[in-house]
């Protein structure tokens, strides 16, 4: 038996392993991503370290960016709060759009009523002036004309009120659309920072129209800009959408497969689009 002084310190067979740089990885709410559900190639999961913690599992295997984003905004404290702001502003924007449709329908109905009543009143007056009225018919004609006049005044009053309301709603549409885009940008920016602190490696970026679009802050700006064009001049929407597509096709030649390369390419494209929008007077 070995003498007591030959034992390892604290009775341990080997010294304790050093903690990773930055300490134990902990999330904003101790979130560990189960990469089994994130499309991982074998990693056990990763967490966000406040002091340098990084990807865990089999060598920091790549995970699906969109799945990570969904968990961030549904399970992480900051992500939940930022996503709640997005949802609230989206609900406000939706309410305004619904109100615009309803008030626009009321304006159209009032305009149709005005045209109908004006036509009836003109016909009644023409009839009264074209033939002599019999005894008692003059009073009836005057009463009918008076009723049409009052109805016409009421229709015009409704039209003015609804038109003013519609004008106010349309004026609120652009700021609300911009606020939604800002909230989405904040959410995406914080997610990127959160993932960067984790040292996460994402899979190749998705193609156009795939889930990666949900994370694209530039798309939020483009949609806000398109909403603005639609609100001001609906007929021009197709033209500007086609112009953007043409500009992008002429600018993007060989998008990179890595996340950094795609992001740099997208930034360059959006810069050109924004400059083109300024030249066309679409943004200030």
Map the helices and strands.
Elements: E1 32-33, E2 46-47, H1 65-75, H2 77-130, H3 137-198, H4 217-232, H5 237-251, H6 259-279
Antiparallel strand pairs: 1-2
Helix pairs in contact: 1-2, 2-3, 3-4
Textual characterization of the structure:
By secondary structure, the protein is mainly alpha-helical. It has one domain (20-232). The protein contains six helices and two strands. It has helices at residues 65-75, 77-130, 137-198, 217-232, 237-251, 259-279, and strands spanning 32-33, 46-47. Strands 1-2 form a two-stranded antiparallel ribbon. Helix 1 (65-75) crosses helix 2 (77-130), helix 2 runs antiparallel to helix 3 (137-198) and helix 3 packs antiparallel against helix 4 (217-232). The model is unreliable at 6-59, 205-213 and 249-260 (pLDDT under 50). Residues 1-25 are annotated as: Disordered. This is Kinesin-like protein KIF6/9 C-terminal domain-containing protein. Residues 65-196 form the Kinesin-like protein KIF6/9 C-terminal domain.
Mean pLDDT: 66
Biggest sheet: strand arrangement: 1-2
Helix content: 55-70%
Proportion of residues in β-strands: under 5%
Distance separating the two termini: 85 Å
SS element count, helices:
6
What's the domain count? Answer: 1
Write down the overall geometry: elongated
**Order of SSEs:** EEHHHHHH
């Amino acid at each position: 038996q070995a003498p007591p002084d030959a034992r390892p310190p604290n009775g341990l067979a080997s010294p304790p392993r050093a903690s990773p740089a930055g300490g134990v990885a902990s999330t904003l709410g101790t979130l560990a991503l189960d990469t089994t559900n994130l499309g991982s190639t074998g990693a056990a999961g990763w967490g966000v370290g406040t002091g340098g913690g990084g990807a865990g599992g089999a060598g920091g295997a790549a995970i699906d960016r969109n799945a990570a984003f969904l968990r961030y905004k549904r399970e992480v404290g900051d992500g939940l709060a930022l996503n709640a702001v997005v949802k609230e502003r989206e609900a406000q924007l939706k309410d305004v759009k619904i109100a615009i449709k309803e008030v626009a329908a009321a304006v159209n109905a009032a305009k149709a009523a005005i045209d109908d009543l004006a036509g009836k009143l003109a016909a009644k007056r023409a009839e009264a002036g074209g033939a002599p009225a019999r005894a008692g018919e003059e009073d009836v004609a005057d009463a009918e004309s008076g009723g049409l006049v009052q109805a016409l005044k009421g229709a015009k009053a409704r039209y003015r009120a609804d038109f003013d309301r519609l004008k106010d709603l349309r004026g609120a549409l652009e700021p609300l659309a911009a606020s939604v885009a800002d909230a989405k940008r904040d959410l995406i920016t914080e997610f990127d920072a959160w993932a960067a602190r984790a040292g996460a490696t994402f899979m190749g970026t998705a193609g156009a129209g795939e889930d990666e679009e949900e994370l694209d802050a530039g798309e939020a700006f483009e949609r806000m800009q398109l909403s603005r064009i639609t609100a001001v001049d609906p007929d021009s929407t197709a033209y500007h959408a086609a112009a953007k597509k043409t500009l992008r096709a002429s600018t993007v030649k060989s998008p990179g497969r890595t996340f950094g390369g795609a992001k740099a390419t997208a930034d360059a494209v959006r810069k050109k689009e924004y400059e083109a929008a300024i030249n066309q007077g679409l943004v200030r």
